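User: Could you go from structure to sequence for me? I need the amino acid at each position, not a summary. Structure tokens:
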């Protein structure tokens, strides 16, 4: 088994903690985090280093392991060497200690061990630095670690990670063997069914695109899923069965049940829309209002392990059952559990919509190479128009500005920038009608900036109101 992972990826899986927060807030925090990191590192003295690349490799009869990462700071003070891990936070610094987010100190310790391995040192200092986003103040926590202590921690962490990956790897071996021996579940093929299967199989192997038109009753679902399974020939390869209708999802699930009754081993997951699977009477993902968002990252890894080791089909009912058992958000559980599924049955949106697609599978650097089966692909045309269309009106911008101002949020400068840009369009349209062929990146940037600031203000205002 070959394992390639980043230090951050490993520690966040094993030691993850914290609440679910909105994607918009995450994006804003990521930008703030980068800025704060760079500002802090700019004060390093001569001889200090930032963003120091480290890697580690080992081979055993069972696996080859390669992990890597970048140390935020390598600081030299009074003949001491300090490995610094920098984290930005919105929390009160007085509330933070080394146990607040275990993954943070774990990340620093992992880096320290990898670094000390190549040095003739018996000990090294580890520093966890938190920087408060609003005030810019920092809190430093220093830990003196011996090489033996770091080695024990490193080995324990890696062993936990590898044990989980061995479970996944063992499943993939069973899956592949079951696919090799999998027979078509019916004694006879329907007219045109075998031709469709052959075309689908060859298309996947050639990484091409196939548009198939076949009359009702041919058995398209079983033909395409069966041939796609037979074409799986890579690690981390997944099949996405995409459909616009709930009925399409149910047919695909029934097909998987049929194949499993014929000795197929494959983890299958159904992704259900957030509003349809939410466990609250009124959906509010604020961790202070939703117990399934609170502490989500503390609970998600045990939930995934439990689900993966005891179930084969993760349909809506199964996801809800395990979400209740582990007190986690069922929608986010389905997304995170999909990492370890072989077949993902979901709506078109999760592959094609720029706002809701599961980016972990479709960004350019993804290790996944999903096979896409698009049910009733003709429906994708009108759906795509909706996915890639958007509108914004001056009256809505003005209404939002008024509402926020009345509640103490002062973003007049940001609203003015957006409204001035819209006014420029209006002035130009009075002169000549035209079609803009290129996206106005500046305008999109202004909208995004305004939206992020407004969302952050609303989030903070809700938190303050809840405390009061």
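Assistant: Here is the amino acid at each position, in order:
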């Amino acid at each position: 088994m070959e394992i390639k992972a980043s230090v951050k990826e490993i520690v966040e899986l094993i030691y993850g903690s914290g609440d679910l927060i909105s994607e918009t807030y995450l994006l804003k925090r990521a930008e703030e985090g980068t800025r704060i990191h760079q500002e802090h590192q700019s004060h390093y003295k001569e001889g200090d280093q930032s963003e120091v690349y480290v890697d580690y490799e080992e081979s055993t009869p069972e696996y080859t392991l390669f992990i890597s990462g970048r140390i935020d700071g390598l600081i030299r003070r009074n003949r001491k060497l300090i490995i610094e891990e920098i984290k930005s936070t919105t929390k009160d610094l007085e509330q933070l200690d080394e146990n607040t987010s275990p993954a943070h100190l774990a990340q620093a310790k992992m880096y320290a061990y990898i670094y000390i391995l190549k040095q003739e040192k018996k000990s090294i200092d580890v520093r966890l630095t938190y920087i408060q986003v609003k005030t810019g103040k920092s809190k430093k926590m220093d830990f003196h670690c011996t090489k033996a202590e770091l080695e024990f921690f490193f080995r324990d962490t890696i062993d936990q990670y590898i044990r989980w990956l061995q479970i996944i790897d063992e499943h993939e071996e069973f899956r592949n063997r079951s696919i090799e021996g999998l027979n078509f579940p019916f004694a006879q093929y329907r007219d045109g069914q075998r031709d469709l299967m052959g075309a689908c199989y060859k298309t996947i192997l050639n990484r091409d695109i196939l548009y198939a038109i076949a009359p009702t009753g041919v058995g398209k679902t079983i033909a395409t899923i069966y041939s796609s399974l037979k074409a799986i020939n890579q690690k981390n390869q997944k099949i996405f069965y995409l459909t616009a209708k709930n009925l399409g999802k149910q047919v695909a699930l029934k097909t998987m049940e049929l194949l499993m009754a014929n000795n197929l081993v494959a983890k299958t997951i159904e992704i259900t829309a957030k509003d349809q699977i939410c466990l609250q009477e009124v959906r509010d993902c604020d961790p202070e209002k939703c117990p399934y968002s609170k502490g989500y990252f503390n609970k998600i890894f045990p939930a995934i392990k439990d689900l993966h080791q005891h179930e084969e089909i993760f349909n809506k009912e199964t996801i809800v059952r395990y979400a209740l058992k582990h007190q986690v958000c069922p929608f986010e559980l389905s997304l995170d559990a999909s990492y370890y599924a072989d077949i993902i049955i979901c709506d078109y949106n999760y592959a094609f919509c720029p706002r809701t697609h599961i980016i972990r599978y479709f960004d350019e650097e993804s290790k996944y190479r999903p096979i896409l089966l698009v049910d009733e692909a003709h429906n994708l045309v009108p759906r795509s128009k909706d996915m890639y269309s958007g509108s914004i009106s001056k009256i809505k911008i003005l209404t939002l500005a008024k509402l926020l101002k009345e509640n103490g949020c002062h973003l007049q400068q940001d609203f003015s920038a957006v409204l001035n840009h819209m006014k420029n369009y209006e002035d130009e349209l009075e002169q000549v009608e035209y079609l803009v062929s290129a996206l106005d990146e500046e305008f999109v940037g202004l909208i995004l900036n305004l939206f992020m600031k407004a969302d952050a203000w609303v989030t903070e205002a809700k938190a303050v109101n809840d405390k009061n």
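One structural detail worth keeping in mind: Residues 147-180 form the longest helix (34 residues).
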